[in-house]
Amino acid sequence: MFEWQFLFFMWLISTTIASLLYRRFAIKSNLHPLVSAAVRGFVVSAPLMWVIALTTGDFTMPSLTIIGFAALEAALGLIYGLASFKAIKQSDASTFSTLIKLSVIPLVVFSSLLLGEGLTALQCAGSMLLMLSGFIIGKVHLTKRSLAWMLTAIVSIALMNLVDRYLVESVGVITALTTVFTIGPLLHLPFTAKSMVRDRAVVKRELPSMVILAVMTFIQVVTFIWATDVAGNLSLLYSLSASKVVLVTIAAAVFLGERDNLKLKVSSALLATIGILII
């Protein structure tokens, strides 16, 4: 059994690599984002998750209620996938990584409204720092359209975290992830089936890039949820995950050449990190 520290380290490395790959893929891909998401799900995420489920023997048949919540998370994932693809394509990796951490604010609000978890003074202070980081990064040139996609991504991933929390607490990590990863690609089919057939030549050409991205994204999701399960402290892991913001900002500057407005981005990333640590 792995310690949560090792799992978190694996998450930090994989999520940084995935962020850079996602930005590069978003710029170069000629596929609709829902098509690429469906292909990644069918080819990598669902098969890998079933291998883990069958190997560990921890999968149990979910009830209709669990399947319903898994379908809800998959639907939110579809929205997040589309919105995040558009947002990162129209901004850059470091800006996206900083702004997406603003999802902590709606997550705390939704937790307060739906789960009865009140806001402490420190949480309010942390939220203010996060909003300040968003204001600073807003000085980087962003179009109204990219901001709209970013806000959609922020709200959808916050809701996904809430639903995922319920699923993991109800049926465990393996059953929750296996159910969501199975329903997710199927949910994409009504929107992507015709495009996948029509653009099969493009799908074939971009398949290697999609597989690499899917593997890193899969590792990112599984290791983080696994780490929170082992550590038994979602707040601790979510706070530590703020380190991704600074790491992605540095990595994007080094590997993707995203050095414009670097001082603003670093300042915003540090404020976001402090804000999340306080929350």
Compute the separation of the termini in Å.
29 Å
Uncertain stretches: none
Count helical runs: 12
The secondary-structure element order is HHHHHHHHHHHH
Main β-sheet, in a few words? none
Q: Which descriptor suits the 3D outline? A: globular
Q: Into which percentage range does the β-strand content fall?
A: under 5%
Q: How many distinct folded domains?
A: 1
Arithmetic mean pLDDT: 77
SS class: mainly alpha
Q: How many strands in all? A: 0
Relative helix content: over 70%
Using only C-alpha atoms, the radius of gyration works out to: 18 Å
Task: Tell me what the structure shows.
With 279 residues, the protein is mainly alpha-helical. The protein has one domain. Helix content is 85%, strand content 0%. The radius of gyration is 18 Å and the shape is globular. The protein starts with a helix and ends with a helix.
Give a brief outline of the structure.
This protein is an all-alpha fold and 279 residues long. It contains 12 helices and no strands. Helix 1 packs across helix 11 and helix 6 runs antiparallel to helix 12 (262-278).
Q: What characteristics describe this protein?
A:
85% helix, 279 residues, mainly alpha, globular
What is the topological layout?
Elements: H1 4-28, H2 33-56, H3 64-90, H4 93-100, H5 104-115, H6 121-137, H7 144-171, H8 173-198, H9 200-231, H10 234-240, H11 243-255, H12 262-278
